Amino acid sequence: MKLIKDLEFSGNRLRELNNNTLLPYTSLSYVYFVDNFISSIEDGAFIELKNLQVLDLTTNAITGFPKNVLSLPQLRSLYLSDNKLKDDALEPISSLEDSNVELLDLSKNLLTKLPPARAFTHLKELNVSANSISTIKASDVSAFCSLHTLDLSKNLLTFDDSCKCLELNAWIKFRKIKILPQKIICDSSTINTDKCSETQTPEQLISNETLKAYDNCKNNIVMHNQMIRTRTTWIVVSSCLIVIIIALIVIFLIYKRNAKRKFRNKKELATSHQVNDELLNVNSINDKK
Predict the structure, then answer these.
(1) Is residue 281 part of a domain?
(2) Domain count of the chain?
(3) Residue 84 sits in which domain range?
(4) 257 domain residue, yes or no
(5) Cβ neighbours of residue 7 under 8 Å, at least 6 residues apart?
């Protein structure tokens, strides 16, 4: 069972995933639990699935999600659509935690804002359609510095200042992000002409706050990659040291064995000479008699 790569268990009446549910299937790469009644997932339910690439839990009753899943090294696509997840469901365990997830589907949940960007620096596709998100800023989107597809449809977005709306559209245009709906409509009647104008270029509309959020995300990616390289270097160095130590131990044992053999041969030779000398002495005495 450990060699199974795909697990399709959709359309059943499964209600929970405990720490032992998937324990016999540690080689899984693709897991589908679509359209069940899952409401409870224990923290260790997926922790042993180091090769997991796609996890689909669409259409369940999930209110809480194991945060350690985000750290699975091979996980690229995570589908959590049509559940009961709130804003804190995907908060990272620590500020240093990063995820390799590239596609995240959180549509049809109970979100009032975007998920925490610091946990998803590699995210390329984000679907938060049909939630309860009412406000969003350009800096909220720019914090996802790898993003190229964003689905905000079926959210009742409002802006107390249309300059924020213009900036959001400017960032989306500047970064060439594919968005649904195709364009966010800004209320021109609330535009503060002292702060912004519809005739301004995207570069003029984008604030320092938005650029800073983007830069922070990029820096986190650099730090994450450096950490991986450092870890890899230490693994290589440690492996080399272990090989050298083992080689030295083997050489020492061979030397010790050869030294013992030489000592034993020398001792046997000395004993042989002693016996021969004694025999010669005995023969000499006998001859004299």
Answers:
(1) no
(2) 1
(3) 6-225
(4) no
(5) 22, 25, 28, 30, 31, 32
CATH of the domain at 189: 3.80.10.10
In a domain, 86, yes or no: yes
Burial of 154 (0-12, 13-18, 19+ CB in 10 A): middle
| Neighbouring-strand partners of residue 127 | 105, 151
Q: Residue 183 — left, alpha, or beta (φ > 0 → left; ψ -120 to 50 → alpha)?
A: beta
Kindly give the confidence (pLDDT) of every residue in the chain, 289 residues in length, as a single tens digit, with 9 standing for 90 and above.
568 999 999 999 999 999 999 999 999 999 999 999 999 999 999 999 999 999 999 999 999 999 899 989 999 999 999 999 999 988 875 554 678 999 999 999 999 999 999 889 999 999 999 999 999 999 999 999 999 999 999 999 999 888 999 999 999 999 999 999 988 888 877 777 778 888 888 899 999 999 999 999 999 888 767 766 676 677 777 778 788 888 788 887 887 787 777 767 676 666 666 655 555 665 566 555 5
CA distances 203 to 15, 40, 98, 155, Å, are 50, 46, 29, 27
| Distance from C-alpha of 283 to C-alpha of 275, rounded to nearest angstrom | 12
Cα 29–Cα 32–Cα 36 angle in degrees, nearest 5: 155
**Position 194 in a domain:** yes
Residues 42-61 as b/e (b if ≥16 CB within 10 A, e otherwise) read eebbbbbbeebbbbbbbbbe
pTM of the model: 0.79
Alpha-carbon distances, residue 77 vs 26, 56, 100, 124, 184 (angstroms): 18, 8, 9, 10, 27
Alpha carbon distances (Å) from 141 to 86, 113, 149, 208, 215: 19, 11, 11, 14, 12
Q: How far is CA 194 from CA 160, 191, 238, in A?
A: 16, 9, 61
